[in-house]
Specification:
Length: 446
Amino acid sequence: MKTRLLLTFLAGLVVSVPAMAQQTLDAMIDREMAALVSTYKMLHAAPELSHREEKTSAFLAAQLRALGFTVTERVGRYERPEWISYGVVAVMKNGAGPTVLVRTELDALPVEEKTGLPYASTVKTKNDANQEVSVMHACGHDVHITSFLGTAKMLAATKEQWRGTLVMIGQPAEETVDGARAMLADGLYTRFPKPDFALALHDSAEVEAGKVTYFPGYAMASSTSVDLVIRGLGGHGARPETTKDPVVIAAQVVLALQTIVSRENSPLDPAVLTIGSIHGGTKRNIIPDEVTLLLTIRTYKEEVRQHILASIERIAKNLALAAGVPADRAPTLKIIESEIAPSTFNDPDLTERIAAAIARTIGRDNVVKAQPLMVSEDFGRLSLDHQIPAFMFWLGTIDPARVEASRKSGKPLPSLHSSLFEPLPEPTLRAGIKAMTGAVLELMKK
Ligand SMILES: [Zn+2]
Ligand SMILES: [Zn+2]
């Protein structure tokens, strides 16, 4: 009888320790929530463009320092030396154990906010081309920063529950996909502890606040920017026989390039080739010398990306040749290196492990497997080509009543990057902090 009582008591203990930790976490988040919501609104009203995250990074660094992290600012080196990298690296060592990296982005977008919220951004600034632009956290990186700070606070306050080295980074220039590369180039993994795991979240403009969605494996595509210049021989619009018209060749190239994905690529390997811009000529009766096409290519697998690039070159060169353009005026293909983003590959084992841990913190019904996407991110770069297991999950942000109304009416909700994107702060932040804290504790718990 005594043994049975003892066993019952012990069994109760096993169940109640995580439950108690969960209660403590909930109570701590409750206490911090009002302050976190005002931090969110403050960040939302003060967005900064990519490569200019000066005040955001200084705020983040000060907050992390106050929590006891060792903080280094201005980590990163861009290809353009005149740009300052506002990367923040905050390290908290807490005994022997795994090194876990958590990343937030810092930058906002040149979008004029039209939500009409009391804390809407009215910020205007000059862009790199010296044009005045409005600025908005239209990708919700303010949600990420606030969730990240809340997570840092929870982990700093519960150091007795975990061990290892926590590396929390504020990454600049995600929207221009050169921030992660800049931080790595400046010794993110040599000057600071190299992680065993990398974690991030991104808000979703479709999912209800309070929920998390995820996908194991390839979750977002790589992105490659290509400038393709079709060169001909210009002349009078009324004397085409004396020219090699690059407008006609460009028109053929636009159509022919669409056969790469549809005819050359396996339908089981997702790929997109979009020509988003085509420019050539100045006047209707002049055949121009060249036409410029701006392309974006999205793939999951590197070999698919390489195949598409080779095919673009082959098709463009041969169509120009067929039109009689001399070899020394063959089309040129330029890959914009600074705009390349690798695909986001969620390590399947890590993904399932963390998704289960998140389900324990926010409820099983609130964690849902979603579809992968063809949009891109530079978080994948931090995994060093899949060497470091990485996982990014989607955080719901939208008022559930609005999601329901959109479902009923069939009218889509404003997407990310929209001037009308409107996260619901409190339940979003609560789920974001609980999910990320739960994820880190799963990897670092004692
Ligand atoms: Zn974005
Ligand atoms: Zn984003």
